[in-house]
Design goal:
Length: 123
């Protein structure tokens, strides 16, 4: 059961971030932080279905994180969920068409190695 919650944290959390990023690409960059501009940006974001899907997925990830923290030590949960960086890089490349450099992939690999060490230390 814990494995399911860990996967939900990583997949739903990263999926939510990717959906929100897609929504914000449609809305456009926030040019300044004046109240009128922020209200316009938030209003625009709320009209994009990707934003709502992203919020839903991030909520699933959040409540899964709460559940995991009730079952396991934070010193295990937080490092293991860092695998979401790998999902994020892959999702950015595939879903958003981003260019991911070799240096970024090397960083993702180092994170994955670190997660492996934390996981081995736990079990």
């Amino acid at each position: 059961m814990e494995t399911i919650f860990l996967l939900l944290i990583m997949v739903a959390g990263t999926g939510g971030e990717l959906c929100v990023a897609r929504a914000m690409q449609r809305v456009g960059a926030v040019e300044n932080f004046r109240p009128k501009t922020l209200i316009r940006t938030i209003g625009g974001a709320l009209r994009v279905s990707w934003m709502w899907l992203g919020v839903l997925l991030m909520a699933i990830a959040f409540f899964s994180l709460l559940q995991m923290l009730s079952l396991e030590n934070v010193s295990f949960v937080v490092p293991v969920t860092a695998l979401s960086y790998a999902f994020g890089a892959l999702g950015g490349k595939v879903f958003l068409g981003e260019q991911v450099t070799r240096k970024r992939w090397a960083g993702v690999l180092l994170v994955c190695i670190g997660v492996g060490l934390v996981f081995i230390g736990q079990h």
